[in-house]
Specification:
Elements (H helix, E strand, L loop, with lengths): L1 E6 L5 E6 L2 H7 L14 E6 L5 E6 L6 E7 L2 E6 L9 E6 L4 E9 L2 E8 L2
Length: about 120
């Protein structure tokens, strides 16, 4: 038995059960969001009802992750507050208005919360 928790951006969640992994695969469509340029790993943390997805991806800079926004098939690097390739960031939530929350490096040893807006 395979159990999946599917969480919605509107705070809802659905628990789906399938008798086999094959049955689970036929019920859900998985979309590979990819990685940022030079990255090898990524994680999606939230999706809103408009289909906008936020998360974090590794980058070409060693041990640096950047927050991303995925919409309309495009992955956009949200960077860091400090700018450039320095530091890391991650986006954890996006609401119906496109406001994104997460954390970002501001110096080598300091992270701050951020709230930004798409578009």
């Amino acid at each position: 038995m395979v159990t999946l928790l599917v969480a919605g951006g509107n705070g809802s969640a659905e628990i789906a059960r399938a008798k086999s992994s094959q049955q689970a695969q036929s019920r859900y469509l998985y979309v590979d969001l990819g990685t940022l340029s030079g990255g090898t790993t990524s994680a999606a943390w939230n999706i809103n009802n408009a289909g906008q997805v936020v998360g974090a991806s590794s980058t070409s800079v060693l041990e640096a992750n950047h927050a991303f926004l995925w919409q309309n098939g495009q992955l956009t690097d949200l960077g860091t507050i400090s700018g450039g390739t320095f530091g890391s960031s991650a986006a954890y939530g996006i609401n119906a208005s496109g406001q994104i929350v997460g954390q970002t490096s501001v110096t080598a040893n300091t992270n701050h919360a951020f709230c930004g807006r798409t578009g």
